[in-house]
Specification:
Order of helices and strands: HHHHHHHHEEEEEEEEHEEHHHHHHHHHH
Strand content: 5-15%
Largest sheet: 4 strands, mixed
Number of helices: 19
Strand order of the largest sheet: 1-4-5-8
Bound molecules: flavin-adenine dinucleotide
Helix content: 55-70%
Shape: globular
Structural class: alpha+beta
Distance between the termini: 66 Å
Number of strands: 10
């Protein structure tokens, strides 16, 4: 591996290289961290373990009582990621994600309230804050005296975050902010807002991040939104009317706020992934109880293969998601800087797995599951938001595939630059050209041996390792071919990039599961990982089938017809084939 901190497993994979040192050994929490976590889990259990009725009541009321928010503060839940020097617990990404996971097992609204504060609300302060800003704000954020919110979305700018209209105009030592932020988690309970505004009105606009506090004149928040799920968490508008913000409250550099926002969202994704995994673990437990207790046709429904299939699949989905979420958190803790693609994959994978799990858990409970007195419909409603916020999964798929394509394009650009160089400097030019030709030939034959094979995995996993290597070769070959075919127009080929992204999601999950099982075997022997080996085998085969289908779909598909149908309906405005 060339430069550890700047290497990305998935971006390298799309170029045909398996950077296995990034995966192995699979990260494990340190023993000191395990002790801290055990203590936190114990206190969560005593605080939240018997509150299920309350959580249901707050869901109906659409609000969390102030007294309960005070309890969360007293339990130190707003201090998780703040350094110890500033009064926080100083948890790393792995431990933090694990705490959000545990909270997700009790209640999604609680997990979102704590997560929005730590993952995104004040993450900008941790990543970009000056000494002065950190000293001014972190102690109160740690004690919970101040709760944080992240304010990017506006009525006209959701996925297109660069299109925000909130303005910041410099006036002496201050900036004057005007605008409206929409659907801000913790809006109603926060006093610290990370606000993004345009600091240049030249048409292109440069975004800057600001620390805004509730006590500033002109800051107001709207009523709680009446939502489908996570109803007890606070979601409001945040309105800024001639708010005078000291220049000392600019986060990061003026004009570099888009980068600040993206870095915050990347860093926060392990929290959301953790929450999703926690939700899945709870749903598995609920489903097991339901399947054992419900008797139909004289037998517990757990004895029927259709029910077993659902529960087994939940386990596979949960294990794969957990493996990726922990892997990404481990990368953050080990100081890797290039984990944005992997973090986006962890969000897509875990949030969709949670949604399927919630849906199947409700199906196992069937009629009972549909009733509000049971926990399933709440779990289904709560889990739906995860595919929408912190970047919709569609936008993240575009990001995943296009980032990889960009790397391949860079290599092609190097190639064309060097081909021009062939005439100026034939020897150098020929060297680059022949390297590229060699890579192409290796991809074509699947023989990129020096980096295209695992060497560190436990030998007993050879079958799944080969399956991964073959799929990885096919991915690199497909990325290269797609780019040659579409060139820069690849940006508009969303159905092609979607398939590539789906292949990448499956391959990172398979790599993470392989690494996790291999490390378990190395550390504890083959017998210790018997069941996990079966999960790996099942996931690998399922992933292979999906990868094959996506690869085949790149060339053979009904995309043109489907798009044409959409165009037809978009033009007519309705379904026109009603036969009555
Ligand atoms: C409960 C809740 C809490 C939230 N909390 C916060 C918060 O704390 N802070 C904050 O800043 N925001 C927050 N949000 C906003 C959230 O991040 C946005 O809803 C999200 O980014 C999507 O934006 P949008 O809803 O405007 O959808 P749109 O951007 O309008 O997208 C609509 C649909 O079009 C698709 N789409 C859009 N553009 C493209 C494209 N180029 N190609 C393909 N498909 C596309 C999307 O995937 C989606 O399916 C929250 C939202 C909710 C509902």
């Amino acid at each position: 591996m060339t430069d550890k901190k700047h290497a990305s497993f998935m971006r390298s994979l799309c170029m045909g290289a398996i950077e296995e040192e990034i995966l192995l050994p699979y990260p494990e929490p340190k023993s000191a961290e395990k002790e801290t976590l055990a203590a936190i889990f114990q206190s969560l259990k005593s605080m939240l373990g018997s509150r299920e009725r309350d959580f249901r009541a707050w869901d109906r009321a659409g609000e969390m009582p102030k007294a309960f928010v005070e309890e969360l503060k007293e339990a130190g839940l707003f201090s998780l990621v703040i350094p110890e020097a500033q009064g926080g617990l100083g948890l790393g990404a792995t431990a933090y994600s694990r705490v959000i996971q545990e909270l997700g097992r009790y209640d999604a609204s609680v997990a979102v309230t704590v997560g929005a504060h730590s993952s995104i609300g004040m993450r900008g302060l941790l990543l970009f804050g000056t000494e002065d800003q950190r000293a001014r704000f972190l102690p109160k954020l740690a004690s919970g005296e101040t709760i944080a919110a992240f304010c990017l979305t506006e009525p006209g700018a959701g996925s297109d975050a660069a299109g925000i209209k909130t303005t910041a105009v410099r006036d002496g030592d201050e900036w004057v902010l005007n605008g409206e932020k929409l659907w801000i988690t913790n809006g109603g309970i926060a006093d610290f807002f990370t606000v993004f505004a345009k600091t240049s009105l030249d048409g292109r606009g440069h975004i800057t991040a600001f620390i805004v506090t509730r006590d500033m004149k002109g800051v107001s928040t709207g009523p709680h939104e009446d939502k489908m799920g996570i109803r007890a968490s606070s979601t409001t508008t945040v309105v800024l009317e001639d708010v005078r913000v000291p220049a000392a409250n600019v986060l990061g550099e003026v004009g570099k706020g888009f980068k600040v926002a993206m870095k915050i969202l990347n860093a926060g994704r392990t929290g959301l992934g953790g929450g999703s995994v926690g939700g899945m673990k709870r749903l598995i437990e609920l489903s097991v109880r339901q399947a054992r207790e419900r008797v139909q046709f004289g037998q517990p429904i757990a004895s029927y293969a259709s029910v077993q299939q659902k529960i087994g699949q939940m386990v596979i989905d949960c294990y794969a998601s957990e493996s990726v979420v922990n892997l990404v958190a481990g990368l953050v803790d080990r100081g890797f800087e290039e984990y944005a693609v992997e973090a986006a994959i962890s969000k897509v994978l875990s949030t969709e797995a949670l949604w399927r799990t919630a849906d199947e858990a409700l199906q196992i409970a069937a009629g009972q599951g549909y009733m509000r007195e049971m926990p399933y419909e709440l779990a289904l409603r709560d889990s739906r938001i995860n595919r929408i916020f912190e970047g919709t999964n569609e936008i993240l798929r575009l990001f995943i595939a296009l980032t990889a394509m960009n790397d391949v394009a860079e290599e092609l650009k190097d190639l064309s630059a060097s081909m021009r160089g062939v005439f100026a400097d034939p020897i150098k030019g020929f060297g680059v050209l022949s390297d590229y030709a060699k890579r192409r030939a290796q991809l074509a034959t699947g023989l990129r041996r020096e980096k295209g094979r695992f060497t560190l995995l436990h030998p007993s996993l050879a079958e799944e390792a080969v399956l991964f290597e073959e799929a990885a070769t096919a991915l690199a070959r497909a990325a290269d071919r797609i780019l040659r075919h579409h060139g820069k127009h690849i940006i508009g080929e969303q159905l092609v990039t979607r398939r590539l992204a789906d292949i990448m999601v499956d391959l990172l999950a398979l790599a993470a599961v392989l690494a996790r099982v291999s490390t378990k075997i190395e550390d504890h022997g083959e017998a210790s990982a018997d069941v996990e080996r079966q999960i790996l085998r099942a996931f690998a085969r399922q992933a292979k089938r999906r990868v094959d289908q996506n690869l085949a779909g790149i060339d053979e598909n009904e995309d043109a017809t489907v798009k044409q149908l959409a165009k037809h309906v978009l033009e007519t405005g309705r379904y026109v084939w009603d036969n009555v």
